[in-house]
Amino acid sequence: MQQLKRISRDLALAVPFIAAASASHAAGWDYSALTDGVDFSTIAGGVLAVAALLAAVYAGIKGARVVLGFLRS
Question: Given a cut of 70, is residue 27 above it in pLDDT?
């Protein structure tokens, strides 16, 4: 019985804090004022170009291994 009383008391103390926290952050953070002036399209293009270059290098290495495997057998 004592444990049930302690749990109900703890819950009664925690409920107002949970309600206040959820109400204060319900809409979330608004970063639109900070991110409106930033253009990530050039960065994305650069990342994709590097990824394509690496894919071409790895494909070339794999092709060379296949050709060398044909020559060995």
Answer: no
